[in-house]
User: What shape does this take?
Amino acid sequence: MTILCRRFLVSGRVQGVFYRSSTQQYARQLGLRGWVRNRRDGRVELLASGSEEKLDELEKWLEIGPEYAKVTNIKVITENQVDTPSTFEVFPTI
Assistant: This one.
């Protein structure tokens, strides 16, 4: 299995609606590694690594997010393999 790495920048009403913790929970269910964090510009950023199939599943979930989120845009950037945590973590805001 080929391990891929993608960075996602999610825009909309994605802060203060449990987007990070919900993303962490879903990513862990998928068996992905990586992290998620709020950005001061109002977006949520995450870096995830795993199979293409699981990353595609995550991306579909990110488009909807938790109940009170309203996603307006997702920018997806394919990354070279980078070091990620051994699980999926919530990182501090940058």
